């Protein structure tokens, strides 16, 4: 696979359009799957329970667990496909690496549900951390100013919530956000800004088309 490294991006095909479509499908199916899984989980609380609890409770609650785990794996695989299409068109490596690692983490979240303990926590943290970084670094794709501002607000907000979680801990007594939002609410303020932004980015990429030939890149993506 050959990646564009010149100062001017001249795609032979509209791979960004395809990448944008893939991101839209990935995020929308995940949101719908979360909603469906919540409806199939008696007593589930968006405040007290994490997203991963839908797919990793003990004992498992079906079909909620299957819906969530299959959807998050699909979300990760589609993210990997989007990265391939973006790189094939000469897109930014820094953004692509972050999105790739986040997508691999999402696959791991589905393969190793919450009941697996530290293994699941590793993949979940990887997904959230690099997802927030991908949101921040998406400006390297040549976005317009409004999209750049949105990416920074959502990405930095998600990243700060992660940092507070790592520094202050995950108990209501130590972390004021968890005391106010609950474990599930706090996690959603990490995950949802990333997922919502990727939906918006997908629409942006899909609509650009041949306008991308006007965007210039330097030799150094980092």
What does this structure look like?
- It is a single chain.
- By secondary structure, the chain is an all-alpha fold.
- It has helices at 15-39, 53-56, 64-88, 93-111, 118-137, 145-168, 176-208.
- The protein has one domain (15-210).
- Helix 1 (15-39) packs antiparallel against helix 3 (64-88), helix 4 (93-111) runs antiparallel to helix 5 (118-137) and helix 5 (118-137) packs across helix 7 (176-208).
- The longest helix is centred in the last third of the chain and has 33 residues, at 176-208.
- The chain is globular, with a radius of gyration of 18 Å.
- Keywords: Membrane, Transmembrane, Transmembrane helix.
- The chain crosses the membrane at residues 15-37, 66-87, 94-113, 119-141, 148-169, 189-207.
- It comes from Methanobacterium lacus (strain AL-21).
- InterPro entries: DUF998 (IPR009339).
Short structural description:
Helix content is 68%, strand content 0%. The chain contains 7 helices and no strands.
Question: Any descriptors?
Answer:
222 residues; mainly alpha; 7 helices; 0% strand; globular; disordered N terminus; disordered C terminus
Secondary structure layout:
Blueprint: H1 15-39, H2 53-56, H3 64-88, H4 93-111, H5 118-137, H6 145-168, H7 176-208
Helix pairs in contact: 1-3, 1-7, 3-4, 4-5, 5-6, 5-7, 6-7
- How much is the average pLDDT? 88
* Fraction of residues in β-strands: under 5%
Considering DSSP H and I runs of 4 or more, what fraction of the residues is helical?
55-70%
Mind describing the biggest β-sheet?
Answer: none
Query: What structural class is derived from the secondary structure elements?
Result: mainly alpha
Number of helices: 7
- One letter per element, helices H and strands E, the order comes to HHHHHHH
* Whole-number total of structural domains: 1
**Coarse shape:** globular
Radius of gyration: 18 Å
């Amino acid at each position: 696979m050959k990646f564009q490294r010149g100062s001017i991006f001249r795609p032979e095909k509209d791979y960004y359009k395809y990448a944008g479509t893939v991101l839209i499908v990935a995020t929308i199916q995940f949101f719908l799957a979360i909603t469906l899984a919540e409806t199939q989980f008696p007593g589930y609380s968006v405040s007290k329970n994490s997203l991963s609890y839908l797919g990793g409770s003990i004992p498992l609650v079906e079909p909620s667990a299957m819906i969530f785990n299959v959807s998050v794996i699909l979300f990760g695989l589609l993210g990997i496909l989007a990265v391939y299409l973006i790189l094939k068109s000469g897109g930014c490596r820094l953004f692509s690496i972050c999105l790739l690692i986040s997508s691999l983490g999402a696959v791991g979240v589905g393969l190793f549900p919450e009941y697996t303990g530290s293994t699941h926590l590793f993949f979940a943290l990887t997904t959230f951390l690099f997802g927030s970084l991908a949101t921040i670094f998406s400006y390297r794709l040549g976005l317009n100013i409004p999209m750049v501002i949105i990416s920074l607000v959502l990405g930095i907000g998600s990243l700060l919530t992660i940092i507070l979680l790592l520094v202050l801990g995950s108990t209501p007594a130590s972390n004021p956000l968890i005391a106010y939002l609950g474990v599930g609410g706090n996690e959603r303020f990490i995950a949802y800004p990333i997922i919502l932004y990727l939906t918006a980015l997908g629409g942006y990429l899909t609509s650009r088309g041949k306008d991308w030939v006007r965007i210039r890149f330097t030799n150094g993506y980092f």
